[in-house]
Every structure is written in C-alpha cells, then in structure tokens.
Write a structure and sequence with these properties.
single chain, 241 residues, alpha/beta, Purple Acid Phosphatase, chain A, domain 2, 22% strand
Amino acid sequence: MRDWLFISDLHLAPERPEVIHLFERFIDEVAIHAERLYILGDFLEYWLGDDDKAEGLENVFQSLKKLNNANIRVFFMAGNRDFLVGHELAQKCGFEIIDEPFIETINGQKTLLIHGDTLCTDDIAYQSFRAIVRTKAWQQETLSKSLEQREQLAQSMRQQSAQANTEKSENIMDVNQKTVIETMQSHSVGLLIHGHTHRPAIHEFEINGQPVRRIVLSDWHDKAYYLRITENTEPELISFS
C-alpha cells in the first residue's frame, strides 16, 4: 500500500487563515501522493449544518475535492466540534463519512479509529454534555433552527467550553488509561489511533501480556503533525509546519 495518512484537530476557521494555508500545503505536498487520508474529528472549528454558507472555507473544500479527483480516498469522522457535518458536504468535497468506533485493518493489524473524547472519562461534565449533543433528537432540533440561531448557539458553546477548560486540570482533560484498556479489549485491537487531547505521541504498553500501541494525533496550532503508515513500516508521526 502507498501511504495512509491520519490527521485530526485542525480546528479550521476563517479567523485562522495560517492553518488553512498549512492544510492547503499539506494537500499539495503530502496528501496528493498518498493512497488514503483519514480525518479523525475536529477538522473544522465548528459546523452549523450543511446549509452553512462556509465563508472563508472554500479553499479547504476545494483541497479535499482535489484529492477526490486524484482518486485518493478521504475518510471523515466527526469530532466534538464538527459533528453536524452531513452527507451533503461529504458529496460536495468527495469524502466518506465513517462513524466511531471504526475498525480498520492496517498492515494486517486490526486497528481502532476514534476521535478520542470518549476516552476522557474523568471529565464527567464533558461526558454528560457529549451524551446530549450526540443524540439524533438534539441534532435534529438544532438543525431546525435558523442559521443565525445556530451561529449564536455555536459561539455560546465555544465560550462555555473555553471557560470550562480553564477550570479543569490537565489530567482530567487527558485520557483515562483504564478506559483505554477497556476500549481496546472490547474491540480486540492491538492498535488505537485517536486525536482530541492535542498530545501527539506513540504510547507502547501491554494488555494481558501482549504489546499494544496507542497513537495520539496532534492539533495544528503550535506544531502540526500527521501520522503516516506505509506497508511493512513502523507508524511515524511527522512534523509539518
């Protein structure tokens, strides 16, 4: 297989043009030569629904379409910021929506792909919030509102999230190792790839005496990384900035 690439937590938004430009470079210099690209959540800072005017994001969507035109498969998994992305945007950009948890076989190894927020079980307040906003009822009710109302809701949620995070310890916002082990065991996988925590690393440990790995993707603000996996090679987190 050619390169399989994994990214997450770009939080693309018009007010961060430098990150948008970085993503365009990534597409033109790296992803265009790959076989697949997996986007594991929080690709966009927020998304109001597929009727969003998406002002300032046109180049982002054109970049994704460029991969589609080159027959490079792009897979999108929602995060805690862009879970209202729907099939209309997917068709426009040429990506495939995958739901978490998603099982993929990589180099013969059963691999679990998730956004990562479900692993942060010490953050009880966030998990309660997530349980509400990920229901179809909440999402349908939200999408029935006007764009202006949804914009106000999104801004309010962003402000509340930022304020809440300043009051939480770093440990609470990281993964719970017991949850990591239970999650990997429940899916019978030896490799877990996720984002969300903005703490890029390759963690090696054991479960029941067997070696396993958890690979954490980075955000794209201070320093960007992408994960590259190629046939018969070790997974590699590569800096791109």
